[in-house]
Amino acid sequence: xxxxxxxxIHRRGLMLVLSSPSGAGKTTIARGLxxxxxxxxxxxxxxxxxxxxxxxxxxxxxxxxxxRFDRMAETGDLLEHARVFGNCYGTPRVAVEDALGAGRDxxxxxxxxxxxxxxxxxxxxxxxxxxxxxxxxxxxxxxxxRGQDSEEVxxxxxxxxxxxxxxxxxxxxxxxxxxxxxxxxxxxxxxxAERLRRRRQIGLPEFVRSIQDTL
Length: 215
Ligand SMILES: Nc1ncnc2c1ncn2[C@@H]1O[C@H](COP(=O)(O)OP(=O)(O)OP(=O)(O)O)[C@@H](O)[C@H]1O
Ligand SMILES: Nc1nc2c(ncn2[C@@H]2O[C@H](COP(=O)(O)O)[C@@H](O)[C@H]2O)c(=O)[nH]1
What we know:
By secondary structure, this protein is α/β, with parallel strands linked by helices. The chain has helices at 26-36, 66-74, 93-101, 112-122, 136-145, 151-165, 180-195, 204-214, and strands spanning 10-11, 15-19, 40-42, 46-47, 62-63, 78-84, 87-92, 105-109, 126-132, 173-176, 201-202. Helix 1 (26-36) crosses helix 7. The longest helix has 16 residues, at 180-195. The structure holds adenosine-5'-triphosphate (ATP) and the ligand Nc1nc2c(ncn2[C@@H]2O[C@H](COP(=O)(O)O)[C@@H](O)[C@H]2O)c(=O)[nH]1. It is found in: Cytoplasm. Pfam families: Guanylate_kin (PF00625). Essential for recycling GMP and indirectly, cGMP.
């Protein structure tokens, strides 16, 4: 069988951000996408929040103390950071830059403040998706059903959901997470289409010219 030519077109990595009110399902959708798409890497955040039962260091988060968090923020080791529900969260810079440099896409499950900071620094590389719950009662049911937070924490998150949702117009795409599989498929479709954006295809003008030159 004849060997096929390697593609002359390379792709610029993109940053795919999922935001939502707490409990709407962005982490669930992110995990589903990671299982289906080998070309995307999850950004693992640092946080000062207490570890929940079942969470794994380095997989769900890097759990660090306030002093270390403040040092990372001061020295520019965080690509973005924010205080959310009384705890600090941030995206370690090096892991993201290494993945993008290797031509991989990076997935983030972060809040609107983090999405705004990424947009300020790298708008062209950012694709943002806002995830809405199908209803308020379902959002509360999911937060409670997760079985990991106290009533006080759940009440605080429900109280802040309206503010988080108010940022939906800042996002490129909005989905309503009713059925998990449909939501994962929707985000997968967004990712596939965004990968084909003209500006992300490095070498495309040269490739088109070479075709035109041989016509
Ligand atoms: N479409 C869905 N239908 C039913 N349950 C869902 C759906 N999506 C997610 N869930 C469930 O809702 C709960 C919250 O989901 P998840 O942890 O993914 O939310 P989140 O938006 O990442 O929350 P947080 O911002 O607090 O990290 C989980 O128990 C998850 O299994
Ligand atoms: N700006 C950032 N927000 C983040 C980051 N990692 C998570 N988050 C947001 O925090 C809330 C709460 O998360 P939980 O794990 O305590 O339920 C979540 O809704 C995310 O939006 C981050 O690195 N930067």
